[in-house]
Design brief:
The structure holds two protein chains of two kinds. Chain A has one domain: Rossmann fold (3-Layer(aba) Sandwich). Helices cover 39% and strands 12% of the residues of chain A. In chain A, α1 crosses α3 and α3 packs across α9. The longest helix of chain A is centred in the first third of the chain and has 22 residues. The radius of gyration of chain A is 18 Å and the shape is globular. The longest helix of chain B is centred in the N-terminal third of the chain and has 15 residues. In chain B, α1 packs parallel to α7 and α8 crosses α12. Classes of the chains: A alpha/beta, B alpha/beta. At the A-B interface, α5 and α6 of A face α3 and α5 of B.
């Protein structure tokens, strides 16, 4: 898909996100909006996947794991708009009997999801396991993950980071949503990550950096990441994003990490986001 | 009435796991092994040596091991994780809960050195809460085999059972009294001795203690039925109700906390179906300590004499 078309998808997904969280007065719009460009590029340009015939095992496909499961709105919208399930189902988000749980679940068999996430820090380990199985199966596709930067405060991430380098997992491409914000405030104030690039390098990873709102740059960095296979090093992309990207009053603050807009705020947000593919 | 059982040797249950896993390696190419720096203790060396491409040394990072195991199921592998029971459960409860149980991943959590019989290392390593934690998780099957042969059979059985399993075994050598080619079925209890006066339902190392207790009791004219309840979940409710119908009273025995163990599960079945006098042998809300396995079982009241005492007490409560 060309960038112009992906921009239309991203605009619709941002509308979906704010409408979904506003409808139930709960959910996490900030990180979802910040990662919309990433998800759009990933699903429409990077991943080798099969939306119309989802299989848990994903043999012969790339796999994606969302480790920071609270940004489920952007994933659900992206999956629906990519054809995994009808966009009308987005209206059930966080409601009783929905497949669209507050945090991703496979209990309800939503196509596109292979693991529950929400309790942070677990997705990298899961992705490593899937990547090990791909190697055992001689399946030369990639495993991708996304993590929050605040999530990197979880110790399990660094257990996994050590393993991935030690076991030369070069079919693994992790991305960090490096927005500098978490629930309680700026990451720097809550618990500094220090020099994040040097930390990953010291753990033996190849570190790439990208502007998470520049679709061409995202395409280029993923192409580069994939080309690095064979070096025997896992790859992490530090992706600079703005929490709340696309909705002016949600940007520049941590306050919309986990708060939903009211009716008036929703209207203001929707006025800033073009309806391109038709609201669900 | 005669309580005779043939003992064919003495081995640790963890060696049954090691042999079972090694055989699985030959029989099923999807079986993979993961270990957190306790390969020798878990008896996983033979698997490691013969199937190095399917053995994954994770290092001292149990949370990561559980996540990797969960991920390896995606694409059809059947991961067996190996570490001590404490590090297999309490240390990684949330990883098991979210990445394995809730995510419905086909991971086999194989846990050695469970309970007090780990011995001299002391209470930091002697987990007595693991059965409770694991049986509370939806989708989880919990198996506590009694001897070497049964642990080996259980190890092989769980490979073909779809879904997460917690398999609990131990460190010390214990008598081998089940048959090497027995028909082991997950969720189906074994009747070790038939009897009419009292039912002793035990799991793990306490099955042998229950056998010893039944033999002692028979000298006093008490005819005890002994049930080896190797599967805690799903629980063989029919076996419990059948034995109670004959005996009218029950003793449960386990190397575990009274809170949350086999006894609690049995009590639920009794209270819903057929309220019955019930006495418990288990560890009563305390941590263990350093000592030999035998010393600890005596001090913490999970020995043969404790089962005998509980039996007499529960029989006195029968109407």
């Amino acid at each position: 898909m060309e960038i112009k078309e992906m921009e239309r998808y991203a605009s619709q997904t941002r509308r979906d996100i704010v409408r979904m969280v506003a409808a139930v007065s709960s959910g996490h719009p900030g990180g979802s909006l910040g990662c919309t460009d990433f998800f759009t590029v990933l699903y429409h340009r990077i991943l080798k996947h099969n939306p119309s015939n989802f299989s848990m095992d994903g043999i012969g496909e790339d796999l994606f794991f969302l480790s920071n499961g609270h940004i489920s709105p952007v994933w659900y919208s992206t999956l629906a708009r990519a054809g995994y399930f009808p966009a009308s189902e987005l209206a059930t988000f966080r409601k009783l009997n929905s497949r669209l749980q507050g945090h991703p679940s496979i209990d309800h068999h939503l196509p596109g999801i292979r693991a529950a996430s929400g309790s942070l820090g677990q997705g990298l380990s899961m992705a490593i396991g899937a990547a090990e199985t791909k190697k055992l199966n001689n399946d030369d596709n990639f495993v991708f993950t996304l993590h929050g930067d605040g999530e990197l405060q979880e110790g399990q991430i660094w257990e996994a980071a050590m393993y991935a380098a030690g076991h030369k997992m070069d079919n693994l491409i992790a991305t960090i949503d490096y927005n500098g914000r978490q629930i309680d405030g700026d990451v720097e104030d809550v618990l500094s990550l220090g020099n994040l690039k040097q930390k990953w390098q010291a753990f033996g990873w190849e570190v790439l950096e990208v502007d998470g709102h520049d679709m061409q740059a995202l395409i280029d960095i993923f192409d580069k990441a994939k080309s690095l296979r064979g070096n025997g090093k896992p790859i992490v992309i530090l992706m600079k994003t703005e929490m709340g990207q696309g909705v002016d009053y949600m940007m520049g603050t941590h306050k919309w990490h986990g708060s939903a807009p009211n009716a008036e705020q929703l209207e203001s947000a929707l006025n800033q986001l073009e309806e391109t593919l038709g609201d669900y | 009435m005669e309580k005779h059982i043939e003992v064919t040797g003495e081995k640790d249950t963890r060696s049954g796991f090691g042999e079972g896993l090694h055989e699985l390696g030959k029989e099923n190419k999807n079986v993979v092994g993961l270990c957190a720096d306790l390969t020798g203790s878990l008896k996983m060396n033979a698997f490691q040596d013969d199937f190095p491409d399917r053995f994954f040394q994770v290092g001292i990072a149990e949370a990561n091991m559980m996540g990797i195991a969960a991920g390896m199921t995606i694409g059809g592998k059947i991961p067996f994780t190996g570490t001590f029971a404490n590090f297999s459960t309490g240390r990684v409860y949330d990883q098991i809960r979210q990445s394995i149980a809730y995510s419905q991943k086909n991971v086999k959590i194989c846990a050695s050195h469970a309970g007090l019989t780990l011995g001299e290392d002391g209470a930091t390593h002697q987990i007595l809460e693991d059965i409770g934690m694991m049986k509370m998780l939806p989708n989880m099957t919990v198996i506590v085999p009694a001897d070497f042969n049964q642990t080996k059979l259980a190890t092989k059985a769980i490979a073909t059972h779809e879904g997460p399993v917690y398999l609990r075994f131990g460190r010390p050598k214990v008598p081998i009294f089940t048959e090497a080619n027995a028909d082991f079925k997950i969720g189906k209890a074994d009747v070790v001795f038939k009897g009419k006066d009292v039912s002793i339902i035990a799991c793990g190392h306490l099955v042998w203690k229950a056998i010893e207790a039944a033999q002692e009791l028979s000298k006093e004219g008490i005819d005890a039925e002994v049930i080896n309840m190797h599967t805690i979940k799903p629980l063989d409710e029919k076996a419990i109700l059948d034995t109670i119908a004959k005996t009218g009273c029950v003793v449960t025995a386990e190397e575990h906390m009274l809170n949350g163990g086999l006894g609690d599960s049995v009590a639920q079945v009794l209270s819903r179906n057929n309220p019955t006098p019930h006495e418990y042998v288990g560890v009563n809300d305390t941590f263990g300590e350093s000592g030999t396995p035998d010393e600890l079982m005596t001090k913490y009241n999970i020995d043969t004499t404790d089962i005998i005492k509980a039996t007499k007490k529960v029989m006195s409560r029968k109407a």
